[in-house]
Amino acid sequence: MNAVTVSTASVPIIDEAAAASYAAQQRAHDEAYRRAHGGADRPPLSTARVYAALLALALGGFGIGSTEFVAMGLLPEIARDLLPGLYATNAEEAIGQSGWVITAYALGVVVGAPTIAALAGRLPRRRLLLWLAAAFTVGTVASATLPTFELVIAARFAAGLPHGAYFGVAALVAASLMGPGKRGQGVALVLSGLTVATVIGVPLITAVGQAAGWRAAYLVVAALFAATFVAVRILVPWQPGDANSTVRSELAAFGRLQVWIAVAVGAIGFGGFFAVYSYIAPMVTDAAGMPSATVPWVLASTGIGLTIGNLIGGRLADAGTVRAMFLGFAGLIGALALLGLAGSWPLGLIAGTFAVGFMAAIISPVVQTRLMDVAGESQTLAAALNHSALNVGNALGAFLGGLVVAAGWGYLTPAWVGLLLAVGGVLLATISVALERRGNAAGGVRGSD
Prior knowledge:
disordered C terminus; disordered N terminus; Growth Hormone, Chain: A; mainly alpha
């Protein structure tokens, strides 16, 4: 967990224990800097430099949002190119099977997030971020150039491996830069790169893919990761790793029941969003009868919902994660019902996808903050696990949505699949809160609210 040299009087202090912990962290990082730089003091950073560093981190999020979501608007093109025989005879089945491009990336995130976080917790943060940006670049170039469906699936899995670790480390850096009392907002700032990608990057790159082929779209994404490497190297200050981090200490988080429940809340609940978003292109063209040229515009509308929801979710998380979780899931269930009922009309589809994006994005920084609350000292792993959770949801939502689409039940059916998954998230959140309150009543640890 990293920071810059900032007086604790210059940041909002809402909790004395948090302020004391932050000050102790600053002293530890000052000493680590002196050891690594021949006794030189760590230079203070201006506000402008802090926000420049946050922007560099968010650029990586922009690239990640683009690489993760651009396939969802290009599934027909991917199916037509990689599964031409099946597409010619059964387009719905081919599009359903091409959803494995999405699922493979998500599985890579699930595997890579805890593995890299546990193994690399001691590395200086900037160095680790640079390695991760380089891995993204290579994996995305491979996705764009390999010739067969099976090889592209393997490349998408490899490209997903750095995802959770990047967001996890970047979230810790951002939270530390923001200071005590603003962890949720720091997380949201890093995630804002991803959500802005859904407004600008994904629609524009989808349009490139429709005009020049889906492979060209992935080459654009690879260029974004190369730019992230340069921006992080120039703008993000040196950050120490966690000197006390070991594989055993990080993996200790898995011994906490509340960590498992929080991961399951994110995975099952957020799967509701991905069940819809994975098949948004055929929803637009087949369910609502809109021309394919409108797909980027619907993606942009959904992305605006994601961006606004993410920023609101960060503030709600700082005000209390439990209330924010239930608010987010209640709204997501309502939005999925709206889409399922009204999505066959263009206005209903646009309103429904916007609402689904808005409510789902509220949940993401809330779950991340919740994981950091319940993970004890395993902060690197906790920050990364949120993205494992969300990408289990990505894989689960894409898989279940693909099943109902391939079965011929219609392109709006994934909205109802998503609603059932969101209800599962509510049930798990209820169990988590009940266990926490029981522990509090018995003199256990203090809850997050």
